[in-house]
Amino acid sequence: MLPPRTARAADRPPESAARRDPANLLRLLRYVRPYAGWLALGIVTTLFSAGLSLVFPKLFGNLIDASFLKRGAGAADTAPLDRIVVLLLGVFAVVAVFTALQSLLIARVGVRVVADLRRAVFSHVLGLSPRFFAVRRTGELTSRLTSDVATVQTVVSSALAQLLSQLVTLVGGVSLMVLTSLRLSLFTLAVIPLIIGTAILIGRQIRKAARDVQDKVAAANASAEEAISGVRVVQSFTAEDLERRRYGEGVEDSFQAALRRIRLSALLAGIMTFLAFSSLAGVLWYGGRQVLAGTLTPGNLVSFLFYALQVGINVGGLTGIFSQVQEALGASSRLFELLDTRSDLPEAAAPTRLGRLSGRVTFEAVSFRYGEEAEGAVLSQLDLDVLPGQTVALVGPSGAGKSTLVSLLPRFYDVSGGALKVDGVDVREAGLQELRAQVGLVPQETLLFSGSVSENILYGRPEARPEEVVAAARAANAEEFIARLPQGYDTAVGERGVKLSGGQRQRIAIARAILKNPRLLILDEATSALDNESEALVQDALEKLMVGRTTFVIAHRLSTIRSADLIVVMDAGRIVQRGTHAQLIAEGGLYKDLYDLQFRAERAPAPPISVPEA
C-alpha cells in the first residue's frame, strides 16, 4: 500500500475538543439571526401544516362511522358522508399550500445560512498565516468548503423543518391517542422508549462513522488536488499509475468508511421498521378486541390507528433526523474548528498608521525559527539597516536564510527575537493589510490565476484604469507579446498561467507589481529559471521596477549583484559579510569564494566550437 502524503504528526494541529461538542450546531444560530423573519414565517407555516395534519385521523374515523354506523330506515342518508369528504379535501388543499410554503421558506433560510458559512470559512482561512498552510493540505481545506458545508446544509435547510413538523405531530398525535383510548395508548407507547434507546445507541456509531467518511474524503481530495496541480511533474516522471493507485486507495478507504456508515444506517432503519410494524400489529390486535367488546367504535379504532401511524412515522423520522444531525455534528465541528483557528500573526489592538513609506528597513538583533520544535534557529542575532531607495543583494549558500529573511518583511512570519522595523515602526505594531499593501513580491516561480492577462495585472490594484494596465505592461516589456495573443489583454492564461512561457509569466508578474506601486520590493531569484533572451527582457523590466524603491534581491546573476548598493553575505542564518562588490572581492572570504565558484562562468568567454574534419 502506498504511503499517504501527510504532514508529520508533530506538525498536525491537535485534535480539538470542539470536534466532539454538540454545542457547535447551536453556533449556527448566529448565522440564522439575519434571516430570523423568514425563519419565523417558515416555523409558523410548519406548525400550521403539522397541526392540520392531526385533523386527518379524526375525519377519517368520522367517515368510517358515517359509512357503517349511521344508517336510517330505507335509503341511506349520505349528507354527513359528503360533508366529511368535502371537509377532508379542503383540509388536504390547505395543508398542501402550507407544506409548500414551509419547504420554500425554511429551505431558503438554510441555503442562505450555508452560503454565509462558506464565505465566513473561506474568508477566515485566507487570513491565516503561511505557517497554518504548511501543515494543512489544500485538498483538505477545499473538502471542508464543499462536502462538510453540504452536510451542514442538509440539516439546516430540511432537517429543521422536519424536526419542527414531526415534534408537533408527535406531541399532538400522542395527546389525541390518549383522548381516543387511554388503554390502547398505554399499550402502544410502551414500545417508544425501546425505539428511542435504539436510535441513540446506533446514532452515536453513525456519528463516528460519518466523521470518518469526511476525513477519508478530505484525504482523497488532497491527494487528487496535489496530483492535478503538479500534473506536469507527474507526467514527466511517468507517475500516472502511481497517482492513480494513490488516489484509488484513498477513494477505497472513503468507500469502506461510507459503507460502514451505510450499514449502521441500514441497521437502524431495519430495526425502526420492525418495531413500527410490530407495534401496529399489536394495536390492531388489542384494538380489535375492544371493538368486539363494544368499548370502541370502528371509526375511533381507525382514528387511533392513524394517530399511532403518525406517531410511529414521526418517531422514525426523528431517528433519521438524529442520524443527519450526527453527521452534521462532525461536519460543523470541523468547520468551526477552522473558524476557531487563530492566526499566529496577531493584529495590534490600535495599529500604528504607516502612511506612504519612505522605505527604510531595520533588522535589530533578529532571530527566527520555524516553530517551537524546530531543530535550530534559521536566523540568529541579525542586524541590518537599509536606507530608503537602496538595493540590497542577498547572497549565500543554500539554506543560509535568505528567503526566510525577506519573508519577514511582508510579515508572513513574525520574528522569534529582536525587532523588524519599517520607517522606525515595528511591523508587529502596524496594520497587516497596510504593511503588505506597500510590499511588492516577484518570486522565482510566478503564480498567475486562471483569468485573463488583464485580470492578472489588475490583481496588483483592482481599481486601476485600463490605460494604467497598458502602461504597466509596457514598463514590464510585456506589451509586445500581449498584442500577439489571440484576444490580447482578454486572453485567458490558463490555470497557474500554463498557456504562457516562463518569461511571459514573469513579465506579467512584474507588470502586476508595477501597477501595485509598492515602496518595498522583494525579488526572489526572479530570473534564475529563464533563458538568455527572456532574462534580458525581464532584467530590463526589473531595473525599471526597482527605481526609487527599497529593494531586496535574492539572485545568482553577477550583473544583478554587482549593481546593488549593498551586498549582504549570509551563512547559517547570520550575516558574515556586507559591502559593495569591489569591497567584498578585496576583503576575500565567503563572498569571493562564491564569486570564484559560481559567478566566474558568467565572465568566462564561451569555448571555441571544434568542428571535426570530414
Automatic annotation (TrEMBL):
Broad class of where this protein is predominantly found: membrane
Domain of life per record: Bacteria
Gene Ontology molecular-function annotations: ABC-type oligopeptide transporter activity; ATP binding; ATP hydrolysis activity
Cited Gene3D superfamilies: ABC transporter type 1, transmembrane domain, P-loop containing nucleotide triphosphate hydrolases
Topology relative to the membrane: Multi-pass membrane protein
Keyword Transmembrane: yes
Annotated compartments: Cell membrane
Transmembrane segments: 35-60, 81-105, 155-178, 184-202, 264-285, 305-325
ABC transmembrane type-1 domain span: 40-327
Annotated Gene Ontology cellular component terms: plasma membrane
Keywords for the protein's UniProt record, in alphabetical order: ATP-binding, Membrane, Nucleotide-binding, Transmembrane, Transmembrane helix
Protein name from the UniProt record: ABC transporter ATP-binding protein
